[in-house]
Design a protein that fits this description.
mainly alpha, elongated, about 140 residues
Length: about 140
């Protein structure tokens, strides 16, 4: 089976908006067939499709945007450290941040300050607890 790109959210909403009029005109048996078709095309669950067909399809913006947790200096340092480790996962990167930052500073690749080291030491691992470590070497 050839690879197909998944529909974006906006494409799904546009498709559901088009199918809404057919769905409303259909009888019970035809609605089931339409739901089957929409489920295959959009890869959404039936209940989600029903909710979208009966509800509002307008996307709402976030009420409040997330702020930055760290400054640009920490962001730049993380970028350099991640690149030096060849972009390993966050769980393996996080325990080695301070050590690698000090090594990169010794070789002139990174400018370190006390505040930057403190921030790197406190950086949380974003994917902590999401993987099974029993099979990791």
């Amino acid at each position: 089976m050839p690879y197909q790109d998944a529909m974006t959210i906006d494409e799904r909403r546009k498709y559901i908006r088009i199918m809404r009029s057919r769905y409303r005109k259909a009888d019970r048996q035809q609605r089931g067939a339409l739901l089957d078709e929409m489920q295959q095309v959009t890869e959404l669950a039936r209940k989600t499709l029903i909710r979208l067909l009966h509800g509002d399809l307008e996307r709402r913006p976030r009420r409040r945007q997330r702020g930055r947790r760290y400054g640009a200096d920490v962001d730049d340092a993380l970028r350099v450290i991640a690149e030096s480790y060849d972009y390993i996962c966050a769980e393996r990167l996080q325990p080695n941040l301070v050590t690698m930052a000090q090594q990169l500073a010794d070789h002139g690749e990174l400018h370190l300050s006390a505040g930057l080291l403190e921030h790197l030491d406190r950086c949380p691992c974003p994917c902590r607890g999401t993987t099974n470590h029993e099979n990791v070497l």
